[in-house]
Structures are given as C-alpha cells and as structure tokens.
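Lab notes, practical 5.
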Amino acid sequence: MELIEILSLLMLLAAALHWGNTQSRRQRTTLLAEHLQPFQIEKRMQQLTEAYMRALGETDLQRQSQIWQIQEPVEQQLSEEFKALAQSFGQVPAPQARTLKLALPGIDKLLPQSTFDTRRALQIHAEGIERAVRNEAGLAPRDKAFTLMAEMFLMQHSCHWFCRSRAIASARMLAQHQTHYAQALNGVSPETRQAYLALVNGPALG
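Output from the prediction step:
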C-alpha cells in the first residue's frame, strides 16, 4: 500500500471517529437536557455562587451573616431539585446512562470497564449536596460555603463529562469557576470524595 493510500485511510478513520463522537455527544446532551428541563438547578447554582463570593468579600460581619442566611432557602431548593433530578435520571436504561472514560464511540461495548454509571454519579452528588446543605459536619458558614461550592462544581463537572469528555469538563470548570478538577475534588466532603473516586476509577482498564 502506497503512502498516499495509507494517509487517505487514516483521514477516513479520523473522520469516522469524529462523526461517531459528535453523534454520541449529541445524544447524551439531549438526554440530560430533557431531565434537567423541569428544574432550575443551573440558575440556583449561579445565584449561590455569586452570593457566596459576595459574602466572602464582605468585611462587615453582620452583613456577611445576613447574606449567608438569605441563601438558606435557595440551598434547600437546590438540594431538593437535584435529588429529584437524580431520581428522574435513575430511570434511564443502563446502556444510555454510561459516561465514557475514553472519548471513543463504541468503546463501552468493547470495554465495559471504560465507562461508569452516570445514574450512580448523580446520586452521589445529590447526597453530597444534601449533606453540605444540612451541614452535618457543623462547619462555620464560610467553610460550609466552600464545601457546597465544591459539591456543586464537581456535580457540574460530571454532567459535562457525561455530555462531552473529562478534559472538556475540566476545562469548563477552570474557565467558569477558576477551579481545577483536583481542587473541587479536594473540597467536597470525605463521603462524596470516597464514593465518587470508587465509581469513576472502578476496575483498571486492560
């Protein structure tokens, strides 16, 4: 086979791979969007993040305390809505609910260990957000805010990973929240971190 033929074949394979990835991503994005549509999760996340940053920059302790208190109903609404989302997405058939560890179309059929169950991931995030909102650890308001933001950012990362890829999800987190993936992972509760890592790492590939 001549070099030009080899190059042409490689170009065809690359085009087929790109098309397959595009179709798979579109299907996953549409699926998640359908389940997110009834809720205002993104809006509540944005409201909480902006309020937390405002409180963290507030020098007046009384004013800071007022900002924390005003957000409590929003925190509760976010927790309840994300719990409902996790329950809704839990009804998705297993083959459609897989997050690919590698951005290769069809790899979930060849190597099942190259995926993890997004239904379980959303359940882990729902429990983590609820735990942070209840403040089971008895953290000070500042530390509670940092923990809840980490729980929200990691949850959003999982959603983007499901729709696109881990690399894109991490890049979006850094661009949108100036937070690295490792920072969010270190900021969540130990219970969330342990359950999440056990899920996404799973059995080693190979």
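Observations recorded by the TA: The first strand starts at residue 98 and ends at 100. The mean pLDDT is 86.
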